């Protein structure tokens, strides 16, 4: 009897170990932003669907890319979400693999802008945002990006520092408006430098701007659409500008780590994230603007996001190669002409 009991316990233990060994684990590298919402709307539902375990690593882009580089020979991350430029940087460093889009059932539901953002087949966009100008329509009129530098307005604006996500895109659009569209952004940086003593602040975080506008210290600032919701709650009128030169913005993309042993699972997770259901849920919580064109949103939600085919087509994004190759030059030029 004791032998039978011992044999049963041993079999049970072996069975349990076998189940643990068979449990698949997917390690993803993501931004720290809105992780509670992602857990509820993306991570937990996927774990339930795949019967696997998700390990989520968060951090800023520099830290996360550095970790991928350090572990290039033996990857510890299977899939990551990064900016377009960071995806190109990872591709140049041999850190990511080409994406087999035939394994993504939701690929053809994406806006064209998100299908192959860098034109190299190494990434797929899952969310994008517009960058334009939040402004006081009772105080000023915005028809062009150059209007921000008019004598009657420039003393009431905030401008993003060149090292922020919004800095280069805003400068890019100002350069277009000035008729001097060169990759070095020399003309718009020089124009900002001429008015550095007038501009209220060169902001680092968009959260600073809501209070400044409420206190009427500023009337306008270039911002990303993801920051817009805070302005809609102010006690003063605020509008989203539609300058004649258009809007710029940014896109976040998904990549698969080269040499990952879980690429099939990573592709399943990417496909799940790109589904109409998941993209709708994230949009309704104002977490991400949807890259899936089948997502339908009520006006009160859509107005706080970058939404719709016309908007997607109109975005003038800085090419990733330009961003990577010119970034150090932008900072040097900015420090020379504007300083901080």
UniProtKB/TrEMBL annotation:
Q: Which residues form the signal peptide?
A: 1-21
Q: Name one Pfam family in it.
A: SBP_bac_8
Could you tell me the keywords of this UniProt record?
Periplasm, Signal
Domain of life, per lineage: Bacteria
Family matches, as SUPFAM superfamilies: Periplasmic binding protein-like II (SSF53850)
Q: Show the InterPro entries listed in the entry.
A: SBP (IPR006059)
Name of the protein described by the UniProt record:
Polyamine ABC transporter substrate-binding protein
In its UniProt entry, the species of origin is given as Rhizobium mayense
